[in-house]
Amino acid sequence: MKTILCYGDSNTWGMVPMRAVMDSDRHRLPDRWPSALASALGTDARVIAEGLNGRTTVLDDPIDGAHKNGRTYLLPCLESHAPLDAVVLMLGTNDLKARFHLPPADIASGAGQLVRMITGGIRGQRGLAPKVLLISPPKVGPLNLFAEVFAGAPEKSERLAERYQAVCRLLGCAFLDAAAHVEASRTDGIHLDASQHQVLGRAVATALEPLLD
C-alpha cells in the first residue's frame, strides 16, 4: 500500500468559503480534496490529510501565531507518518497576506525550503526520501471578507505558478498548477467549493500516479 501525506493550509483542511468572520465551517470528509484523491487512487493507497488554517510556508505569523509556520511542524509530521511514498505540498496562499509584503518569488522560495526538508531525509520507503508533488495554490479571486488582509493578493497569485514551476525544475520535484484546474469560490475568493475539491483531488491523483509506480 502506498502512503501519501497531504501537507497544506485551510484548503487542505477543508474550509467552507466564508461569508462572515465567525461563519467558518468545514466541508464533510468525503467532500475534501484529500478524500477525493484517496478515492481516485483506490484501495492500494492511504492518504493522510495534514491541513492547518492559516499555515504559511516558512513564516511566523505575528497575528495568528508562530505555530502557523509550515516549517515548524513539517519534520515531526514526516517522522510520525513515516515511511511515506509521497508528499503533496500545497502552501503559499497565506504568504500572500498583506502583512508579509512578499513577492511571488519569495513565496515560491519558501515552498522550496519545505521541499528540501522533505527530500533531505530518509522518511520514505527503504531508507529513501519520499517523492514530492509541489502544488502552486489556486489563484485568489475577487475578495470580499478578506479584502483588507489579502490586499494585493489576486495580482500576486497570478504569478505564483511560474515561480513554483521554476523551483520544481531546480529541485527536481513534480509540479502541479492548481489554478489550471480549479477556481476559488466567489464567496470569499480564497477557499474552494466542494465541487472544486473533487476536481482538485482527481487532478492530484493524475499527477501523483507516475510518482507511485
List keywords for this structure.
213 residues, alpha/beta, 7 helices, 36% helix, Rossmann fold, 5 strands
Q: Could you name the CATH homologous superfamily?
A: SGNH hydrolase
Tally of helical runs: 7
Low-pLDDT ranges: none
Shape: globular
Reported by name, the CATH topology is Rossmann fold
N-to-C series of helices and strands: EHHEHEHEHHEH
Structural class: alpha/beta
The largest beta-sheet arranges its strands as 2-1-3-4-5
How is the main sheet built?
5 strands, parallel
Distance between the termini: 12 Å
What is the residue-mean pLDDT, rounded to a whole number? 95
Tell me what the CATH architecture is: 3-Layer(aba) Sandwich
Kindly provide the name of the CATH class. Alpha Beta
Fraction in beta strands: 5-15%
The count of domains is 1
Model description:
By secondary structure, the chain is an alpha/beta fold. It has a single domain (2-212), classed as SGNH hydrolase (Rossmann fold, 3-Layer(aba) Sandwich), CATH 3.40.50. Helix content is 36%, strand content 14%. The chain has 7 helices and 5 strands, in the order E-H-H-E-H-E-H-E-H-H-E-H. It has helices at residues 10-13, 33-41, 70-81, 104-119, 153-157, 160-171, 194-212, and strands spanning 2-8, 45-51, 86-90, 131-136, 174-177. The protein has a 5-stranded parallel sheet, sandwiched between helices. Strand 3, helix 4 and strand 4 (131-136) form a beta-alpha-beta unit. Helix 4 (104-119) runs parallel beside helix 6 (160-171).
Concise description?
The chain is of the alpha/beta class and 213 residues long.
Reconstruct the topology from this structure.
Elements: E1 2-8, H1 10-13, H2 33-41, E2 45-51, H3 70-81, E3 86-90, H4 104-119, E4 131-136, H5 153-157, H6 160-171, E5 174-177, H7 194-212
Parallel strand pairs: 1-2, 1-3, 3-4, 4-5
Helix pairs in contact: 2-7, 3-4, 4-6
